[in-house]
Write a structure and sequence with these properties.
Blueprint lengths: L1 H14 L23 H8 L5 H5 L5 H15 L6 H14 L18
């Protein structure tokens, strides 16, 4: 039983290793994020819990970034930000990491009659 438990735990750890920086990946300092007002505050607030890679591959509207802050406080135990700092960070994230993907057009059934 202990061997089975050790294999399960070991498999879980191997399935989600801590991210390592690839040779071409940005360093973990504020320069990993695009320049702009709020970059340093964003870096130091966000990297307390996760790497910049998570931020850099995200793209949301300002409202979605703001909602994400609420989710992180409620579900991830992030310390709430002061109102001015939160606005600065959310504004920065919305400017630096806006939505990148557009939704594909709705499917048009060629056999449907209009």
């Amino acid at each position: 039983m202990r061997t089975l438990l050790a294999m399960i735990i070991g498999g879980m750890l191997l399935a989600s290793p801590l991210p390592a920086l690839a040779a071409d990946e940005a360093p973990e300092d504020p320069s990993a994020l695009p320049d702009g007002d709020g970059r340093d505050e964003t870096f130091y607030s966000c990297t307390a819990c996760h790497s910049t890679a998570l931020i850099r591959r995200s793209g949301f509207t300002r409202q979605q970034w703001d909602d994400l802050m609420d989710w992180m406080v409620e579900k991830q135990n992030m310390n709430p930000l002061e109102a001015d700092e939160r606005k600065l960070i959310v504004d920065y994230l919305a400017r630096a990491f806006p939505p990148r993907r557009t939704r594909p057009p709705a499917f048009n059934n060629p056999f449907a009659t209009n």
